[in-house]
Amino acid sequence: MAGLIGVGAERLLLVRQVHGAAVAIAGRGRPDPWSRPEADVIASDDASSAIGVRMADCAPVLVADRRTGVAAAAHAGWRGTVQRAAATAVEALRARFGSHPSDLVAAVGPCLGPCCGEVGPEVVQAFIDAGHSRASVGRWFSTGPAGRPYVDLWRANADQLEAAGIPGQHIHVARLCTKTHADVLHSYRAAGEESGRMVAIIRPRSKPLG
Question: Within its chain, how far is the Cα of 56 from the centroid?
Answer without folding.
Answer: 12
